[in-house]
Amino acid sequence: MNNAVTIVFPKMPEKLGINSEWLQLRDILLSEAKGLIVADETGFRAGSEMLQRITKLSNQLESFRKDYTEPFLTAQRSIKAMADKAREPLEAVKATLKTQLGAYAEEQRKIEAEERRKVEQAAMEAAAAAAQENQEAADLLGEAAPQEEIIVQAAPVARRAVSDSARVTTRIVWELVDLDKVPRAFLMLDDRKVNEFKRQHEELVRKAVEDGKPDAPIPGIVFAVKTDVAAM
Known about the structure:
Layout: H1 20-34, H2 41-141, H3 191-200, H4 202-210
Helix pairs in contact: 1-2
């Protein structure tokens, strides 16, 4: 199907800004917060109240931002989906072509490398033969053989898999075959697995920390109980 696909963008005000009242409230809260000291129950209650006020004001602006940006983010996702769908058949053929071209280029690279090895070997043998001839000639004359380096130019090797429309490059790739043999420096801790263990065994972890054995649940990892305070 060749039907055109269009997306209607949400309307946007010509000008958008943060009102002065919100900015004034922000500055007032910042000024009041500077003098807060949490050292007793009174200070804790005052700090909790300030946390609540700051969170409420901050969330107001975040809500304001989302009201205007979310429609455009939705439109952005729709544009990407539209473009991806239209490109899908091209990318499928592209992937197939790259696989075929890559396989051929790899085969030709190996052939070219073998040819280069052979001509280099032939050049080395020719240089060795020339050196041997020089030595034999010097021996007949009772002279020392010349010490200059003998250079034999290797025959050129024709390049393969050449095209003006595509660039052939090589890169090093790898795959894991035996995790037990991988050096420790290349192993990475999986945060998701640790967090999942913590979630499933929260009571066990808490007790280990309270008993002074924070690394008992998972050797090599030290757990701790952290206290957070959030506005209500």
